[in-house]
Each structure stands twice: as structure tokens, then as C-alpha cells.
Write a structure and sequence with these properties.
The chain is mostly helical and about 400 residues long. The chain is built from 21 helices and two strands.
Amino acid sequence: MRLIKTFFCLIAGYLLFGVVACLLPDKPVQRHIKQTVDRQEIDRDYPRAIFSGHHAMMDNFTDALIISQVWNSSSDSIWESVMQPSRAKYCEEMTTTLKAQIEGHHTENVKYGRYWHGSTFLMRYLLLIWSYESIRLVFGIVTSLLLLFTLVRIKERIGSWAAFYFIIAACFVYLFITQFSIQFVPVLVLSLTGMLVMLDERRDPLLSCFVIGSLTAYFDLLTTPLLTIGLPLTVWVLAHRDDGSKLLQSLTEMLKMGVVWGIGFAATWGSKWILATLTTDSNIWADAMENIAIRSGDTADYTRFDALTVNLDMLSFRLIVLAAIVMTVLMAIHFRREGWKPALLLLLIATVPYLWYIVVANHSYVHFWFTYRLQFISILALFAAAGCMTDWNKLKNKN
């Protein structure tokens, strides 16, 4: 009953959040969007940040799409903007399309009702105050502080080694890229928040996982949603590695949290399809079912195995192997036999991203340049498994 009540409160909150966003004054929002375009603050769809490879690619395409929806919300009806916000269509490049839209060129509007588009409404609040470049700076500051606080809590609750392994794993998936994108920030914030919740004994983990799953469905556009449950479960296992629980008991608790997260995620998404279908002239439910079939399928051009390998190829395996060797040596010298139970749970968590790649093959293959970051879960879980089987007290005393 708590979950059901929480669910309806969340749905009501999402609707209210969107409606209020659409009622905000249009002039300051549009002024900041024009500044964004005039100053060329968002001028290419997929620029690289610092590094030249796909692993460092920004998603300005989706950021421009979100800003386009914000611009259209000034002219669309409030309910239409909440249920199925529209974006401009002008050419294949979304940043060029946004520029054409703001400059008054003839563009076609395309409705996009499958998602809740929480990021679009959040951006309308933020564009009331800042332009895109300033918003990215704010995102960077907020996420950096949240990262720092999360690392401090991991150090306090688990140990310095766990915080260090988190930093190393984050570097392997270029996590800093996600700090400056409207598209990626929600998953990062929710993942870190989930980790902090799991480190707080006062919180109800099941209810927290349900809420985080629901918020992920509201804000995320299917980037790397599993991070919001995979990373929290990893720190949960580490935080309870010495509590004396039996393996089956811990596994059951872990599976419960995963299932509850999935229920919150699926129920929130499904409720949007039902609401939009019942209250608009579009059959969003049928559209969603069609896209689920597409995103979870494969074609003659690629297989599910290709979806798996293209994501694996994004990692720097030489560096990962080097780090793994160092951790294995530490584990061998200061072996801790009692750590096998949490290590086994962590190994199970590490497999989840690869199951996702196989099941959601189309999406994972087409968008490999950001879906590869799901492996943050795997890298951290594998490093943490080695950490659980290392006696850090002996190592510290020896030093």
C-alpha cells in the first residue's frame, strides 16, 4: 500500500511539475533560448569533449531537441505540452534545426509522447534564469559537489579503497562527460542519490528503489537507466558485507530492490502511455509497443552479439587489465576468505549491463557511444569484489 500511495503521489507530482513549468512566463525563457542560439552555445550535434573518440562524445542533438520542445511549449496548449511535447523538424542536424526554429524559418512540428520528458520541464524552469551555457556550468558544479559528497560517504561507511575504486571505474567510462549534458545529468544525479540512500541506514531501501526507478522513467530518455539501480546495489552490498547475513538472505534482499526499482520504472512509463492515449488524439500506447519491439530487436545488419561487442569495444581494456592485475596482487598477498559472499553478489551485479545489451539490442547498438557507460556497474562491481576479498586492515598495519 505504501508503494501504491507513493506511486500516485509521484504521478500527481509529475503532472503538476509539467503544468507549472508550462505556466511560467514565456519572455525570459525565450530570451535565454535566443541567447543560446545567437552565441552559438550549442552549435554541433555530437562534439567531442577533450578526447577525439566516440567515448567522449557529447549529445548536443538531444539537448537541442529538449530546448526545441521548451520553445514550442510557449505556443502549444498546456496539456498537449505535458502529454506530448513537440519539437521542430527542419533537417537531420538538430542544432541546425533549433537555429532555424528560433530564427523563424518554416519548420514542421513533431509530437513526441512516449516519454514523460521531465528534463524538458526542468529546463523550462532553468531557462527562466540562465542560457544553455550557464545551465551546463550549474550542472557541472552541482554534480561535482554531489560526487564529492558521495565519495566522502563511501569512505566513511565502507573504506578509502572503495572510494578509490569508484574514481578509477568512473574514469574508465569518462563519467565527467555526463556532467555537462541535459541528456545525461538526470541519470548521474539519480545514481549518486541512490548510492547515498543505500549508505543511510535510516532509509527504507525498497521504497527508495521504487522512487528512484520512477524518477528515472520521468527524467531519462533511455540513456543508461540501469545505473540508477546498479550503482546503488553495489554500494549496498559493500555496506552490508560484514553484517553476518547468509548468502541467500542477501541475494533475496538485493533481488527485491531490483524488482521494486523495475516496477517503479515500468509503471511510471506505462502510466504515461495510458494517460496520453486517453487524453489526446494520439495512440501513444501503440506507438510505445511498436518502439519497444524495434529497440529490443536485431536486424540482418547486426546481431545481439554485435550489440554486446560494440559496447565492449568502447572500453580501454589494457588499462582495465592493468588495474585488475594490481588489485589481484593485493588480494593474493592479503587474502580475506570471508569476502567471498559479497564478492559473489557483486559478480552477479556485474553481469546486468551485458544482459541489457543483449535484450535491448537495437538501442544498445545504435547508441553504443553512450550506452557503453552501463559498464560502470560492471567495472565497479568487479573491482569491489576484489576489494571484498582483500584484507585492508593487514595491508594498513603492514604499511
